[in-house]
Here is the input.
Amino acid sequence: MLILAIESSCDETAASVSLDGRKILSNVVYSQIDMHALYGGVVPEIASRKHAEKITAVAEQAMNQAGVRFSQLDAMAATCAPGLIGALLVGANFAKAASLMLDKPFIPVHHIRGHIAANYVAFPELEPPFTALVASGGHTLIVDVRDYTDMEVLGTTRDDAAGEAFDKIARVLSLPYPGGAALDRLGQGADPKKYRLPRAVVSGHPYDFSFSGLKTAAVNLTHNAAQKGEEIDRAALAAAVSDAVADSVVPRVVAAAREKGRTSLCAAGGVAANSVLRRRLQQACDKAGIKLYLPPLSLCGDNGAMIACQAYYEYLAGNVSDSSQNCYANMSVSETLCGR
Here is the structure.
């Protein structure tokens, strides 16, 4: 089954063609990073306009790279939730229009399910059930993946996502956007124990996260040093932030996997590219006897391949829609998009 999938939930315009889900024939990503770097973060209106400018060319490039004609496609797919609503609508409307023109099914895909599916692309042997950690600029979740389209949220952030904390702290350290990657590079080899940063616990909810206090503590530490005319050790602070996030995330996700009796755990999302988190996850999983799946860095960020892969399993589950399908800025990964 050939599927052309579109991803446009934030600031990447992406398209991919998949064959039976896991075989990726093309994966094209147009990044808007240089444009949004001028503002220190994503500007939703600019992102939407740039998607509209690039979507046709990106889709055509994906088709050419795959060596497939539009008439050969069996279905169209697009991310429909969650994300920036204007950005989502550009990709979804393109895919819905193509499905109408070709008289082919339209498959709406949940962005978080797509991130999890990036592991299916990287590891053909991976099958549910397993536990997934999804960590990005807008989400930090622990998900029990019972089947390809049957998922339960075990834990989530109560305020800021880990990636948002990374980006905000990177900004006060005068690091370039996107901040998470720059923060990770800066902290390499530095002493993560030089600065004491908080690790929040949500009472009564052992698998939930809170990163607002971490963000505030690091920002205040930086501002207080500047007001006193003191020079802060930027590398050590960057290392301390990554260390604090890993301390918050790793024990929780491993404990969740063990409670559910899962022997496999995967990571997904942009924050899954953080070197400290990857190393600590591997150490903890080795100790617990859990098989860890870490996608390559190229599949951690937003891309079309993850949406094309998940679209196949949504199709098999009967989660097919039409041109009336809407987009949603927020939606739980456990919900099904069709019929909303």
Observations:
- DSSP finds ten helices and ten strands in the chain.
- The longest strand covers residues 23-31.
- The domain at 2-116+302-316 is CATH 3.30.420.40 (Nucleotidyltransferase; domain 5).
- The two ends are 26 Å apart (CA to CA).
